[in-house]
Amino acid sequence: MRTEPFNEAGCLEDFRKLLAVDSTTGQYEALQDLLCGMLDSMGYPYRVTRKGGVIADLGGEGHPLVVTAHLDDIGLMVRHVNADGTLKVCPVGGLYPFYCVTENVRVYTRGGAVYTGTVCRTPNSIHVTEEELRSVLPDYRTNVCVVLDEPVKNAEDVRALGIDTGDIIALEPRFAYVNGYLKSRFIDDKACAAVLLSAMRRLKEEGEVLPRKVYAYFAFYEEIGHGTVVLPEDAEDILAIDIAPTGPDQNSDERKVTVFCKDSRFPYHWGMTNELIDAARSAGVSYVTDIFTPHYGTDCDPSLSAGYDLRHAAIGPGTANSHGYERTHIDGLRETYRLLMAYLRRK
User: Fold this and answer.
1) How far is C-alpha 88 from the chain's CA centre?
2) 15, 60, 122, 307: which one has the fewest Cβ atoms less than 10 Å from its Cβ?
3) Spelled out in words, what is the top-level CATH class assigned to the domain 75-171?
4) What homologous superfamily does CATH list for 8-73+186-344?
5) What is the pLDDT of residues 188-234, one digit of tens each?
């Protein structure tokens, strides 16, 4: 049995680099530039899609496989500038208000300015809020806003800064690493993208030629459902690397990799899923199988919906608190990496 080395420090470094660049869905340019620089340094050829996304060629011949991980984050957008100088907001992707109240944010204007602020309840001070108002759940439409770190008192003051409806709001990731546990926003899916980069770096360092054609697709629109609707024309299989949410009825474990059997839209391809399970067993990978409903999907789903004739499968590390302040373990990233490498080498 081959013991696959995993560069833990390198994977974490890549993860932190990706986290450091805000990329709420639609806001892709800066992170795409960073990613292209990383691919240039590794020596991989790639192409950039028109809407935003990068497809790298990992070499090999025959039966092309697309491995995808997404780099867009859930976030907010300015819905309206309120009369008191606060910002009414709406979600971009599946960001629920109870998972972002009190979070620090950055507001990106279309003019290029960036301002900081905080997501707050309205009213926001417990000491001067009636009990019946405190018991109401947070709601973007009625009692949640962004308070800017600027001396603004009215809508005119805010607009004078260049802030207006349609500006993007990114949440602070707040990365921490404790006893092997990674705590951060956007483990979904920047940690998985870091795993894919680790695999690519290892293959390049070893000068390894894969037994089949492989593309690595870094997508920027997964959180709103159209990340991989354009694929290389010769693609036959697609493998998504994405988080495996933990929960009371779930098998997924933060210290293991999950092989996905079904999500909220489709069962994953029986034969390809069995190949992954076989690869995990053969390589001694610590894995589980799991099903994710009712609110989960990966970038395999839009590819199938777009009409591609593909086999599809997904793997990823068990991850707690999905779409909130997420947590996984370095062991989960390691086992995901080991399964990915075993599958890429499968003949």
Assistant:
1) 25
2) 307
3) mainly beta
4) Zn peptidases (3.40.630.10)
5) 999 999 999 999 999 999 999 999 999 999 999 999 999 999 999 99
